[in-house]
Structure formats: structure tokens, C-alpha cells
Write a structure and sequence with these properties.
Helix 3 packs parallel to helix 10. The chain is mainly α. The two termini are 12 Å apart. The longest helix has 33 residues.
């Protein structure tokens, strides 16, 4: 049985944003695209488990002053669903993020984007296996169309390039992170009816503590964090956008329209990533970009339309 989403709270603009699932999920993809680009840039500079531990501990500390009244009120519900909440902390925050950061040290960006394109399929598979929720025809068609758009962008319009791609251990690690996050996405609608700040602060705190032994292992093996301008800039972006805001937006978006309708928004991540490369790195906008963008947008609209089942 699906538990209804908590009622929105906050100011008038907050009320409006909190009920715009398509905007929330699009912003989530934008923030996660920036996270992937940054992860590739600092992959050898910041230990992955240490980075993930600081990421979630930092988010918890940022949210705690705002979340504390809600945590006190929601504690009976949290305690009653403690095994589920701990499991969500593990798969959605600890394992998923640490293994994806770790994988970026071994895989190419092209491989990671190709593997990430399978994200909606993992969500659909877990929803089917656990709860018997099947994709509608519109959702299946939308995922297929948006996936074609993603491949068009990544392969620069040359689908023959698929034959030249090889996979390594980093790719398997990245794929396992997607399997984990697919399960998290499928379980989100089954979480207890609590305030969003209660949910995100509790799970980030638990996720950080789960990761601490791994961070200590990195430290004692010589993988230490370098406190310089690059590290500070990286942590500032990661704490605010792909962590605090993105997870709040993603959880709310899934609560509003369901995991299967929300999953195709994963395909916007490489779209935003390629757009960032054009705007920030001076890459040329080409015809295959426009074709890919159009296909992804058409697929996302088709899969997430109001008439589709959750």
C-alpha cells in the first residue's frame, strides 16, 4: 500500500515549488549532472568514502536546526519504521554515493553516462519485483525514446561507436550504485508519513555513521583529504546542490508522481551535462545535440504525463 506524501509546508513560494514535481525532478537532474562533472574533476584529489561521509554529515548539520522540531514530533513514526529507515540510509546515501564516487576513479565519463542511462529500468524492475507495479505503455515508450536521445548525445550521433566501448571494474561499481538507487527510488513511496526534513536529516545522519569506518580505513591507508581551494569549492557545491536540495527535491517528486513516472528524469542528467560542456568548456553545439535533447524531452514528457499510472 502506497503511503501518501506529507502535506507541504512553508512560505507561499515554497508551497508552489513543493507541488511542482516536474520542476523539482528537473532541478535534481541539473544538480546531479554538476556532481558527476565535479566528481570526474576531483576524483584523484578527494578520497571517495571520506568525501561521501563529509557530504552526508555536512547535510545533516546544515538541516538539523530546521529539522529538529520535526524530528521530535516524527520520532515515534521513525522508531516504528526503524529497519526501513536504516535500509534506506544504506542504499540511498551510504553505499550508492560512496561506490559511485569510487567508481569514477576507474571508469570513463562516457561509460558512466551510458550505464546511468539504465537507471529508469532498475527503478521499474524493483517496483515490479517488490510491489507488482508494471510500466504502462506510455512509460515504456517514454523511457525508450529518452534513452535513444541520451545515446544520441553521448555517442555524438554515431551509434556504431557502441561497438568500441569496453567496460572495467569501475563500470561494474557504477552499475551497482544504480541498482542500489533504483531500490531506494522504488521504496520511497513506502516510507512513513513524516516531514521531508525529518526524513532527509535522519537518513543522512545514519548514512554518514555507516560510512565512518570506511573513511577511517582510507585515512589509515594514506588517502587523506587535502584542505585547499579545490576541496572547499567541491564540498560547498556538493553539500548544497546535489545533496541537500537534490535529495529533498527528488524525494518530494517521487512522492507526488511515483517512482516509475519520476525515473525517466534520470535521462536529463547527461543532457544537462552536455549543456554544461557547451556553456562552460566551449564545446560547439551540433545537430546531434539538438536531436538528442528533443528525444529526451519527448520521452520524459511521454513517460511522466498525468495519465500514466504510478
Amino acid at each position: 500500500m502506497t503511503i501518501s506524501a506529507p502535506k507541504p509546508t512553508g512560505s507561499a513560494p515554497g508551497h508552489w515549488l513543493n507541488n511542482q514535481p516536474y520542476l523539482l525532478l528537473s532541478l535534481t537532474s541539473l544538480f546531479w549532472a554538476g556532481n558527476i562533472v565535479l566528481a570526474r574533476h576531483v576524483g584523484s584529489h578527494v578520497p571517495p568514502i571520506t568525501l561521501t561521509t563529509i557530504r552526508w554529515l555536512g547535510v545533516f548539520l546544515i538541516l538539523l536546526p530546521f529539522a529538529w522540531p520535526h524530528l521530535k514530533r516524527d520520532w515515534p513514526a521513525l522508531r516504528a519504521h526503524l529497519p526501513l529507515m536504516m535500509f534506506l540510509s544504506l542504499i540511498g546515501f551510504a553505499f550508492n554515493n560512496a561506490i559511485s564516487y569510487w567508481a569514477m576513479q576507474y571508469t570513463e565519463a562516457l561509460n558512466a553516462l551510458l550505464i546511468q542511462s539504465s537507471g529508469p529500468l532498475f527503478v521499474a524492475l524493483w517496483s515490479l519485483v517488490l510491489f507488482g507495479v508494471r510500466l504502462t505503455g506510455a512509460q515504456l515508450a517514454g523511457i525508450a525514446v529518452s534513452l535513444a536521445g541520451v545515446l544520441t548525445i553521448i555517442l555524438r550521433g554515431d551509434f556504431a561507436a557502441l561497438a568500441t566501448i569496453t567496460f572495467n571494474k569501475g563500470d561494474l561499481m557504477f552499475a551497482s550504485a544504480l541498482v542500489s538507487f533504483g531500490l531506494y527510488s522504488a521504496l520511497i513511496p513506502r516510507r512513513p508519513v513524516i516531514h521531508q526534513l525529518s526524513f532527509i536529516s535522519f537518513t543522512t545522519c545514519c548514512g554518514a555513521f555507516m560510512l565512518m569506518p570506511g573513511a577511517l580505513w582510507e585515512f589509515f591507508n594514506g588517502a587523506t583529504l587535502k584542505f585547499d581551494a579545490l576541496t572547499l569549492a567541491t564540498m560547498s557545491y556538493i553539500l548544497i546542490f546535489p545533496s541537500t536540495l537534490a535529495y529533498l527535491f527528488f524525494n518530494r517528486g517521487v512522492a507526488l508522481i511515483g517512482p516509475n513516472r519520476a525515473a525517466p528524469f534520470f535521462h536529463l542528467v547527461p543532457v544537462f551535462g552536455s549543456a554544461m560542456a557547451i556553456l562552460l568548456l566551449g564545446e560547439m553545439l551540433q545537430l546531434f545535440h539538438l536531436i538528442g535533447y528533443a528525444l529526451v524531452l519527448a520521452g520524459v514528457i511521454t513517460a511522466s504525463r498525468q495519465g500514466s499510472a504510478k
